[in-house]
Each structure stands twice: as C-alpha cells, then as structure tokens.
Design brief:
Two copies of one chain form a homodimer. Chain A is of the alpha+beta class. Chain A has three domains: about 60 residues, Orthogonal Bundle (Arc Repressor Mutant, subunit A); about 70 residues, Winged helix-like DNA-binding domain superfamily/Winged helix DNA-binding domain (Arc Repressor Mutant, subunit A, Orthogonal Bundle), CATH 1.10.10; about 80 residues, Ferrous iron transport protein A (FeoA) (SH3 type barrels). The first copy, chain A, is built from eight helices and eight strands; from the N terminus they run αααββαααββαβββαβ. In chain A, helix 1 packs across helix 2 and helix 4 crosses helix 5. The first copy, chain A, binds a DNA duplex through helix 3. Chains A, B: It is found in: Cytoplasm. Chains A, B: InterPro entries: DtxR_MntR_Metal-Reg (IPR050536), Fe-transptr_FeoA-like (IPR007167), Fe_dep_repressor (IPR001367), Fe_dep_repressor_sf (IPR036421), FeoA_core_dom (IPR038157), HTH_DTXR (IPR022687), Iron_dep_repressor (IPR022689), WH-like_DNA-bd_sf (IPR036388).
Amino acid sequence: MTLSEEDYIKAIYHLGKGENNIVSTNEVAEQMKTKPSSVTDMMKKLSEKGVANYRKYKGVCLTEHGLKVALTLVRKHRLWEVFLVEKLNFAWDEVHEVAEQLEHIKSEKLTDSLDKLLGFPQVDPHGDPIPSKNGEFKKAVKKLLNEVPVGTSGTCVGVKDSSAPFLKFLDKNRIALGDTILVLEKEEFDGSLHIQVKGKDIRISDQIAANLYLKITE
Amino acid sequence: MTLSEEDYIKAIYHLGKGENNIVSTNEVAEQMKTKPSSVTDMMKKLSEKGVANYRKYKGVCLTEHGLKVALTLVRKHRLWEVFLVEKLNFAWDEVHEVAEQLEHIKSEKLTDSLDKLLGFPQVDPHGDPIPSKNGEFKKAVKKLLNEVPVGTSGTCVGVKDSSAPFLKFLDKNRIALGDTILVLEKEEFDGSLHIQVKGKDIRISDQIAANLYLKITE
DNA sequence: ATTAATATTTAGACAAATCTAAATATTTGT
DNA sequence: ACAAATATTTAGATTTGTCTAAATATTAAT
C-alpha cells in the first residue's frame, strides 16, 4: 500500500464517519486537497486493488479489507499521538502533523510494542478511541459536561463559551483540554457537579458544566 | 528533501566513510540497488539543489549542507535504533529496517525530545556514535578485545571465531552482541583480561579476547 | 419534463524516479 | 600510445500521482 493510497483510504474512512458510508468524488477531493479528476483515477486503482468499491458517478466506500487497512492506520495514528503526549511531552495540539507521518511506518511489531509501552491506552489525547489490534473499537460522542450521567468519564475536548473569564476559571481550576474528567456526583437542587480532574476533586456549577465539551466512548 | 533524495544523500555519505570522499556513480548505484543511469540523473538534481558536488565522469561528494543533512539522517536513524532496543525491547538485529523508515520523519522537536527521553545516548545498539544536534560526532573503530588498552569501553559487535564452543562460552558468561564491555585490568603474564559486562566482573583468557570484536568511539 | 446547474469522468499533459539500449568517456594492459 | 575493457552519460520509454480543459452524467428547478 502506497503512502498516497493509504491517505485516500483514510479520507474515505473519515468522510464515512466510521460507518463506511458511500462518499462522493468531490468530498474526497476536498478532504485530500486534490482535484476530482485525480480522485477518480485513484478510486479506480483502489477498486482494482480490492480495498474500495467504486461505481462511476455513484461514489465510493471501503471493502472489508479496506476498512481493516483504515482501522490500522487510525490505530497507529492515535497510538503515536499518545506516545508524543505521554512520553515526549508534546502539547495536545502539536501531535497531529507528526502522527500523520508516523502512521505510515510499516511494522506490526513496532505498533504492538508501542501499544504495550503505553499501557494499551483506550483513547488518544483528543478523547478518540484507539482501535484494538484486531480492528474493534468503540465510537466516541461529544457532549456537554452537564448532559452526561453520574459515573461518566471522558476527555475534555473543547469549550462552548470561549470568553476570557471562562477560560480563566478553567485555568485557575487546572482544567485543560486533553484532561480526563470523571463525574462523581450531581446535586439535584442546582445541577452543580462534583468532578475529578488530574486526581483532584472539585465542584463546579451547572453553568460551567454547560460550557465544557467532553468526548466519551460508549 | 524527498525520501529518495535523502536515501541518495545517505548513500553518498556512507560510501564516503564519513570522510566525505568522492564516490563513483557505480558505487552509488550498487549501494542504492538502482542503475547507474538513474544515479546520474539524481546526482544532477542533488547538485542543482546544492547538497552535492557532482562532476561528469568524476564522481560526487556532499557539500557542507549535504553533509549536515546526512548527519541529521544518521542521528535520527541511530536514535530510533536506541529507542527500539531500549524502550520497545527489539533485538539488536531487528531494528535496522524500521529505523530506515523512521529516519525520514520530519520534526526537529520529535528528534530532540526522543534524544532527551533516551538520556542523550552516545552510541546506538551497534556501537556506532550518534551525531549531536549540531552535527558533531566521534568516529568509531572496530578492534579485537585483546588489542585495546585498559580502561577502554566499547560495544560488543562480533566474533572472529564463530565455532560452537566459543559461542557457548559467550552465552555461559552472559556476553551478547550489543553489550557494553569495559576493560578493567590486563594480566601481563598471560594477557588474560578482567572485564565488566552488564554490571558483572569476569575474567577471560587472551584467546577469548582475541576473538571478540569491540566497537569503540575514540 | 426540459433546462440549468452541478458533479463526475475522460483525454491529454507533466514532473519525479526509474529503466533499457545506445553513445561516449575513462582507465587499463601490453 | 593504442586497443580493449570498463565506467558513465544520454536519449527515449515507463509508472505513479497529479493537473487542466473538455465532455458527459446527474440532480434540481421551474
């Protein structure tokens, strides 16, 4: 599998939202930052190789085999992201570009050893689940912190309100993007929450919780 | 710099034995497993890019800039080899192929963080020195263990006698390829040695020492 | 149901990296 | 110093992945 072929497979996978939906030539072209005519050529090639089902004017989706390739790429990408953050102290938002390169390294032994070194992580630094060696993995959804039930654990991935006061609050309470948050308790009276972040217990109001996005794997 | 260009630069570097000697088209072709005509084309390109000095029929060597590129590649290759052995428990002889891929990853931050994670190693698992960030590095030489002075430390990289009894002796004494050996003392009378391997002190005869290759950085 | 707008494909060209075969230069042996 | 052997380059072709422009198919709108 060529570097370029792998990139197209990943594009089809991601545009299909992990559901392997049929995606259009133009969608792929936009994602890959190429022209539709280039996509048509590549779709024919991927079809011949048995990794994609392509029908003229109808769009393309992955075959069973293509899906396996895509999941392996996603697995490698996310494992490397964990490595960069956990072992090399990269920041949350610095890992993507390098992981795009590292995901193409071909060595099953390398991938599995890395998985082991990292303690078989379930999610990457963006809270997205990491496919297992045999390609199974959970779906992730993004929800506001005040909408999840008690006992839920997830990764903090964004804010709804990005005003200075709110961001200052988060900073003061040591809540940062990429942190894992566990909901310990919810106060019925005012909807305030008791949560755990980086091993510390804190209490936050419903308003705060209504402005924090969590990514949770179901 | 293209993947292919980088491979040619490394080939020129290695054929020049780290001395940046002029190397011939045919030598490069053999090393790269391509045809001489392909090499000619690439040499012209590398010359135009300012990384090599190529003169028709005369051969090629690297420019100052090309040498820098080569040393960066060697640095990355060897750091990844250390990573694979130290962190992922790869064996001595399993690392090369994967490192060939990893050395092309472009991220200065990644390289330097890796260097730090590994504790700024001086040599790779084959005993070859690792260039520093700014391109300085020591040369390594291969010598028989009985020929080095007391106090010398090096990496065990091979055997002269590969008979079963000798290999069995090494195994019994826990001496393996890739191990670091330090010469503590030499007995003048019979030339026997007192050495340290993996934290253990052992004594070996001159005959044993005369059949073990050590790689030492001067 | 036709036309207009949009999406997709085809045809032909290009750059990178390679190859083969032929031409040319250099080196070696006498 | 000259012929033979060897090394190197040139010319022209091929593959991969891309592009533009033109042709064709699909979809949407009246």
